[in-house]
From TrEMBL:
<dbReference type="GO" id="GO:0016491">
    <property type="term" value="F:oxidoreductase activity"/>
</dbReference>
<keyword id="KW-0560">Oxidoreductase</keyword>
<keyword id="KW-0216">Detoxification</keyword>
<protein>
    <recommendedName>
        <fullName>Propionate 3-nitronate monooxygenase</fullName>
    </recommendedName>
</protein>
<comment type="similarity">
    <text>Belongs to the nitronate monooxygenase family. NMO class I subfamily.</text>
</comment>
<keyword id="KW-0503">Monooxygenase</keyword>
<dbReference type="InterPro" id="IPR004136">
    <property type="entry name" value="NMO"/>
</dbReference>
<dbReference type="Pfam" id="PF03060">
    <property type="entry name" value="NMO"/>
</dbReference>
<dbReference type="InterPro" id="IPR013785">
    <property type="entry name" value="Aldolase_TIM"/>
</dbReference>
<keyword id="KW-0288">FMN</keyword>
<keyword id="KW-0285">Flavoprotein</keyword>
Length: 360
């Protein structure tokens, strides 16, 4: 199989395989492992303040000489109104109560104590650190940011979950579109946090292919050779892996979280807004079952509010109050290294491809 295509050229890699950004899971070691396996690693920076972004980027540079991508969240931030302040306090009390009822004594931050960062603060840090590839999710970068990054020679990878979003990304000058199917683990990369397009990858990918002229990376549900090659047939030139790497030795998940992933079946995986205020796919638990729509603040407020709960639950090995994100393809969550998992996939693809070639 010839892996060379537009994506390998643009990303300067041997294989058009991308380790997905997974905030809270991706580590510098995972990114380095992916890039050292001649694929593209992606460092998830979420909404971290600029100085933290620099720290993580430098830690990754210590582990690899190869280029890697960085990923940021570019969502709008809802205005902090009196009504929102009031709802924040009510939700804080509600969540503290349910946590206490389940023997978790947490003190969540007041609205004055949380720090909301805008992605604009991150852009200069990424330019200063000479990040060659910037991927983003939860919307589109604004015009000045696109101009600034492209003027510095940065290649932009934007996430879409609908044809409309893909077309907007292309028109604004984004170089590569990352098509995220509904089956993907973690947060939906949709532009809106409420009315999300709920389109499966099998439907979305070929429609985006027919609607844009920039190269496409597909993400969502790729976990073996057949799923990878299926997305190639539908128009993908790049293949991004998320959940397949959750159990890897470089993943930041705790052992109890990796075990939980291996223990649950398909009926335990669902979309929920309860932890962050944006839809994300992961394992249902006591928290997702108890937090109803009336106690969910808009993103990023819910996310900031529940951060301390998740931290305490994690420290207590309590799987009922942490967010364990994962996609719909149960891949067994191998505990091997990122490089071994990726290399095994490459070999499987090459074997399957040569079988297909032989049958022609
Ligand atoms: C734990 C977790 C965290 C994630 N964090 C991010 C993130 O920080 N940025 C992002 O663009 N996507 C994030 N995603 C989405 C992934 O990049 C990717 O789209 C998804 O995992 C692909 O689907 P799959 O899990 O079926 O492979 C996350 C996914 C998971 C499972």
């Amino acid at each position: 199989m010839n892996w060379k295509n537009n994506i390998t050229k643009l990303l300067d890699v041997e294989y058009p395989i991308i380790q997905a950004p997974m905030f809270g899971v991706t580590t510098p070691a995972m990114v380095a492992a992916a890039t050292n396996a001649d694929c593209l690693g992606t460092l998830a920076l979420g909404d971290l303040p600029a100085e933290k972004c620099i720290e993580h980027i430098r830690a990754t540079k210590q582990l690899t000489k190869n280029n890697f991508a960085v990923n940021i969240f570019v969502n709008d931030i809802p205005e902090l109104t009196d009504a929102l302040r009031e709802k924040y306090t009510e939700t804080k009390d509600f969540i503290e109560n349910i946590a206490r009822e389940h023997h978790l004594d947490v003190h969540l931050p007041s609205i004055e104590e949380i720090q909301i960062n805008s992605y604009h603060d991150q852009i200069d840090a990424l330019i200063a650190e000479k990040c060659r590839f910037v991927s983003f999710t939860f919307g589109n970068l604004d015009e000045p940011s696109i101009y600034k990054l492209k003027n510095n020679g940065t290649l932009l990878l934007g996430t879409c979950t609908s044809v409309t979003e893909a077309v907007i990304l292309e028109k604004s000058g984004v170089d590569i579109v990352c098509v995220q199917g509904l089956e993907a683990g973690g947060h939906r990369g949709s532009f809106s946090s409420d009315d999300i397009p709920a389109i499966g990858g099998l439907s979305l990918l070929p429609q985006v292919y027919d609607s844009v002229n920039i190269p496409i990376i597909y993400v969502g549900g790729i976990y073996n050779a057949k799923t990878l090659l299926a997305t190639q047939l539908l128009g993908a030139q790049g293949f991004q892996l998320g959940s397949l790497l959750l159990g890897s030795s470089e993943s930041a998940l705790e052992q109890f979280e990796k075990q939980r992933l291996r223990d649950v079946d398909e009926t335990a995986i669902a979309l929920t807004k309860s932890f962050s205020g944006r839809y994300a796919r992961g394992i249902k638990n006591v928290f997702t079952n108890l937090v109803d729509e009336g106690h969910i603040l808009p993103y990023p407020y819910q996310n900031k509010l529940t951060g301390e709960l998740r931290r305490v639950a994690k420290a207590n090995n309590n799987s009922q109050f942490v967010s364990i994100w994962t996609g719909q393809s149960n891949n067994g969550y191998s505990g091997k290294s990122t490089a071994e998992i990726i290399k095994k996939l490459i070999t499987e693809v090459e074997n399957l491809y040569s079988i297909k070639e032989d049958r022609k």
